[in-house]
Amino acid sequence: MLRPIDPATPSTETIRLQPTRGFSRVLAPRELWRYRDLAGQIALRDITVRYRQTALGGAWAVLQPIGFMVVFSLIFGNVAGIASNGLPYPLFSLAALVPWTFFANALLLGSDSLVANSALVSKIYFPRIFMPAGVIVAGFVDLAISLVILLVIVLAWGYVPSLAILAVPLLVVIAAASALGLTAALSAINVRYRDVRYVIPFAIQMALFVTPVVYPSSEIAEPWQTLSAVNPMVGVVEGFRWATLGTGNAPWDLIGISAASAALILVAGLAYFDRVERAFADYV
Amino acid sequence: MDPSTAIETHELGKRYTLGVSGRGYGTLREAITARFRNPLRRSDDGGEPNQLWALRDLSLTIETGEVVGLVGHNGAGKSTLLKILSRITEPSSGYAEVTGRVGSLLEVGTGFHPELTGRENIFLNGAILGMRRAEIRSRFDEIVAFAEIDRFLDTPVKRYSSGMSVRLAFAVAAHLEPEILLVDEVLAVGDAAFQRKSLAKMSEVAQAGRTVLFVSHNLAIIQALCKRGVLLERGRVQADGPVGEILDHYLAGLERASAADLVEREDRDGRGWRHTVLKKVEMVDASSGQRNAVVGGRPARLVVEVTELLPGLECRVVIANSFGQPVAVLDSEVSAPADSRDPELGPRLECEIPVVPLLPGRYRLDVGLKANSVIQDGLQAAAFFDVEPGVLEGRPMAGEDAEGSFAFPHSWRLPP
């Protein structure tokens, strides 16, 4: 069953294990590349497991934003009469809810990913960043499904997206980058302080109202409107409305600020993750 | 580094900081208040009192193809060393150089996901163990055949019997071809069939010229598999040499430790609340009252003394031969009608053994203690005792050189 080692093939390289300093772990492309197959398997597992043994399966990816859309339309659209840039409120809110749901789920599942996989973390070596990153990759599948549904509804409502729709991948990258930066940091903190588990659901609900999901950011007075885009989801959400509904002006100022902010969050999150990663197995 | 060297460690050290809550969990509030009290102090300051060096200045060289057994008390640093070599945790000082692909034989099912099917788990588990996807695909049929699960390939693993999961897990691990194999006490878990297969796998790996580093309390297995032994004590190499000599050295140390006060011993099992701890364990000859020497075929009494009398005390004693191979278990939690609770007994548990069925030799006692189903304490090699040759129902029991560990009553019907 086991082949003897072929003496002709030179032994593989030598790895030196020593206390590391600086940000050498996450930012080690060779190491990440070496473990690429594992990264793929973890993402595949997260995708497969997400809705297995649920009666509705992948429909959940759609039901969550649709459900919120219905409730928000009734409460904020009809009862409260919140402005929606002249758009039908359901479309207005759904275009924001699609990226928001992706972001919120990534945070919720990603921040628990290291603790949930503690059996692996404490027994096997692999670049730990794969755990939160795998959750986000799995979230792309949900996002793609709900994006298709969004476009179907938009078309059914008689709106035709313009070429602006080509900006969607860029907006998704901004959302994913900030989600990865945040989940990297949060999952790492969660290893030591399980408080994170209780903070996240609460914080996500708060953030929903800080982000212009149920209201347009045009309702906010300047300079706060522009400044609010340091929350990367502001640019993503407003960008999504413009890109998928094919109306209004391109909010490039918001998108630009949000992109810069997302880049900063990503770098800071990964840097923090890198710094504490080496001690995960000792705490988890 | 010399190309024939597989593993070389140089003054390797691993320091653990013990937090307020014992295992260093701590809460966010603790961390924040500590930071406010001592704003200038770095959190990983060197001079903290509750620090533990699990490994200290450990230098060790292992050549390619060597099969090395690591022995030592609990807490000697064996598992920590394997964790560093498999890159699960980082050393705090020194370094280790490892040449070749490292694989670990893991507990059954680590990395299995119950919702995934057998097929999906083969790929996931293979990747976790460090196999390339192409490699798994090329061995896929072999793995399935070895595990004998082909009919259930597309059934979620949660519906597998435990035997099937074990076979599948092992099949994947068996097709990993590491240059260096690390084995940490896996043979202690899993059923007998798994242990046999693991053992066969290990000797196969050894014969294929691969390097194996092996940790076990079962010294018989270490002796059978390894040529070289390394004895660790308090995170350092205490002795290193031919496996026979190292094991003798280790056993002598164990016996010295069991002669000392048990309360003072630090090599206790990690789990346990320690509201009550083992104070003394003795096997007493019931007729002569002689301690730690009993006669085969005669009655004996096992006495376990503890520091505190807690309600619902139970104990589990594993009788192992001198190689650490378990031969019998006396477990008070598995009750019988003759068991009783005696309010007059005090902080001790006694076990009456009407007939000692053990063959002559030296045996050791590994003791675990519970109170109200909560683990309190555990100590390996808490005591040693000798069994002297005796007579069982009129028949002399076999001598020291006999095979096996037991004698039992029997009679023959023979042709004239």
Description:
The complex is a heterodimer of chains A (284) and B (416). Chain A has 13 helices and 1 strand; from the N terminus they run βααααααααααααα. Chain A has 284 residues and is mainly α. Chain A has one domain. In chain A, α4 packs antiparallel against α9. Chain A is globular. Chain B has 2 domains: 183 residues, P-loop containing nucleotide triphosphate hydrolases (Rossmann fold); 135 residues, Coagulation Factor XIII, Chain A, domain 1 (Distorted Sandwich), CATH 2.70.50. Chain B starts with a strand and ends in a 20-residue tail after the last strand. The relative contact order of chain B is 0.11. About 3% of the residues of chain B have low confidence. Chains A and B meet through β1, α2, α6 and α13 of A and α2, β4, α3, α4 and α6 of B.
Describe the secondary-structure layout:
The complex is a heterodimer of chains A (284) and B (416).
Chain A: E1 14-17, H1 29-34, H2 36-50, H3 60-79, H4 89-110, H5 113-116, H6 118-121, H7 130-156, H8 168-192, H9 195-210, H10 224-227, H11 232-245, H12 252-277, H13 280-283
Helix pairs in contact in A: 2-7, 3-4, 3-7, 4-7, 4-8, 4-9, 4-11, 8-11, 8-12, 11-12
Chain B: E1 5-17, H1 28-37, E2 51-63, E3 67-71, H2 78-85, E4 93-99, E5 102-105, H3 118-128, H4 133-147, H5 162-174, E6 180-184, H6 192-207, E7 211-215, H7 219-225, E8 228-233, E9 236-242, H8 243-259, E10 278-285, E11 293-295, E12 300-306, E13 313-321, E14 326-331, E15 348-353, E16 361-371, E17 374-388, E18 391-392, E19 395-396
Parallel strand pairs in B: 3-7, 3-8, 5-6, 6-7, 11-17
Antiparallel strand pairs in B: 1-2, 1-4, 8-9, 10-12, 12-15, 13-14, 13-16, 16-17, 18-19
Helix pairs in contact in B: 3-4, 3-5, 4-5, 5-6
Produce a short descriptive summary.
Chain A is an all-alpha fold. Chain A is 66% helix and 1% strand. In chain B, 23% of the residues lie in helices and 32% in strands.
Keyword list:
heterodimer; A: 284 residues; mainly alpha; 1% strand; globular; B: 416 residues; alpha/beta; Rossmann fold; Coagulation Factor XIII, Chain A, domain 1; 2 domains; 6-stranded mixed beta sheet; 5-stranded mixed beta sheet; 19 strands
